[in-house]
Amino acid sequence: PFLHTHQRNVLVVVGAAPVRRLLARRSLAPSSCGRGDSTRRSRIKRERWLTRFHAVGSVELTYYDTIELIIASLFVAGAAVLVFLTGRQVTTPRAALIVTVLFTFGTGAYSTASRVLWQHSPSILAIAAVVFVLTRPQQTWKTALAVGLLSGLAYVFRPTNALTILSCAGWFVATRRQWLLPFALGGLAIAIPFCLYNLAVFDALLPAYYLPERLEPGDGHFGQALVGNLVSPGRGLFVYTPMLLFCFFARPRRLEWAFVAVIAAHWLTISAFPHWWGGHAFGPRLFTDVLPYFVYFLFKPVEWILANVKQRPVWKVLLGVAAALSLFIHTRGATAIATHGWNDGPPNVDVAPQRLWDWKDLAFLRGL
């Protein structure tokens, strides 16, 4: 499989690309370093940080391609194991295995999270672990502690995972308030060192990348983004992963409504980004983090289809077609570099985002 180096969001070598975005966001160019700082100590911290950044930036990042591919693939493999174990708790072994295979090779877990070391790579593992722990048949206060730790880690990996923290907190408030304390303690075990590090490096509890000011739902793009994230030919979730349409046949109960809430809130949040298509990427990259929630809702529909093959064969055919398309599309995204060249155009998708709506130029068909 190839490793596309143009879509770098490297966490190896101190995360050079997110740092570059942070520089642009906070105007920390060397010429302006220290501007507005009230103390010499703060200026020294910024200068030290910039020194570290430029030292990282001088490294040829392509040297780490193979390392990234291996680490990212291990993250996704771990998530796949957890998806299967979750399925074994709620459905038949056969349905659990089928859904796990579809998750691993028929979603952005394959075409995005396993190809380079995005933030999505560890994020998808952490979210899969949260789902696994919450759906275990035996629940104790240790469950809440583990969920606090895991959701805290998920937030560190990807700020949109704050929605998982809020949803889990709401679930514990509604069902087991006595577990709120261990849940909070688990989260604090991650939050305290994270914030201390940020104070030492950025003089703030949170880096700019984690701040809600990045969301701009009122700038006129929000409605288009809501639709585009679901059905646009350039980034539509159900265009690139049509098998997820079968999630709508699941009937959520109790805890599962918390999962639905995360999915819905995530959709609204990523649509609030002015850059809602996620820059140079393949398909619905910004939905990658919540894929473990989506595939959870495939377990029961797949189980029902397998149990009613003779009585309702049409459903097996429909699922087979949707699954085959999903596998084809994400295999193309994972193995054909031409599919990523679609972002370059011409014109570049970041310059001409109207290309996201062009049904005559589908990224996953590039190079055929």
Can you give a write-up of this model?
- The radius of gyration is 21 Å and the shape is globular.
- It has helices at residues 16-26, 40-57, 65-90, 93-105, 108-113, 120-134, 141-157, 162-175, 180-202, 222-231, 237-240, 255-271, 291-296, 299-307, 313-335, 338-341.
- The longest helix has 26 residues, at 65-90.
- The protein is mainly alpha-helical.
- The chain contains 16 helices and no strands.
- α3 (65-90) runs antiparallel to α4 (93-105).
- It is 59% helix and 0% strand.
Question: Which SSEs are present, and which pair or pack?
Answer:
Blueprint: H1 16-26, H2 40-57, H3 65-90, H4 93-105, H5 108-113, H6 120-134, H7 141-157, H8 162-175, H9 180-202, H10 222-231, H11 237-240, H12 255-271, H13 291-296, H14 299-307, H15 313-335, H16 338-341
Brief write-up:
This protein is mainly alpha-helical. It has helices at 16-26, 40-57, 65-90, 93-105, 108-113, 120-134, 141-157, 162-175, 180-202, 222-231, 237-240, 255-271, 291-296, 299-307, 313-335, 338-341.
